[in-house]
Amino acid sequence: MHETAQQIEKLGQQTKVQVVDVSDAKQAEEASRSARAGGFTVRAVVAAAGIVRLDSLRNPDPVSAQQMMAVNVDGVYNTLQDLVAGGSESSALIVGSTEGFKGAPALNTYCRSKAAVLGIARAAALELGPLGVRVNTIQPGTIRTPMYQPEKMGPGACELATELQRRTPLRRVGQPEEVAKVARFLISADASYNLTS
Description:
Helix content is 48%, strand content 8%. It is globular. It has seven helices and three strands, in the order H-H-E-H-E-H-H-E-H-H.
């Protein structure tokens, strides 16, 4: 985050870095309040926080499932509150996943959380669009982020990673930079008309 802030500051923009547990509505609200008190106006938010853990209907882990739903779903909802408070001429980008509409074995809760995120995005676009707030989603497949470490996720994870890659039309894992380029466009003024979920 600090590296990103430095890059933004090189462009002549002011930044404020805050570490927030987006699954905690009070923390998210306080971060928003703190930014506004510091003179910042929120013009764009990217709801990209997410976690993935293996789970299935046959081998449930209720604690892990609750954590995934809290971060992946509640976190998006809490992040959008920034825009509601910020007014018009703003943009939200919600990072979902192709697994939210395709599904994947051993990723039951992750898939349902990303399906819920798509529903939040669609509802938010309809609610906030008339106020001048654009809401979009990106639905990437498997991306090589620090979260993508199948060798550390437990039995069957490496096989699942191979299967997910096989199901991808390009047959490869994506790079974060590829998603970032699309994200940058969607939150920019270049996407200011008729591009919303």
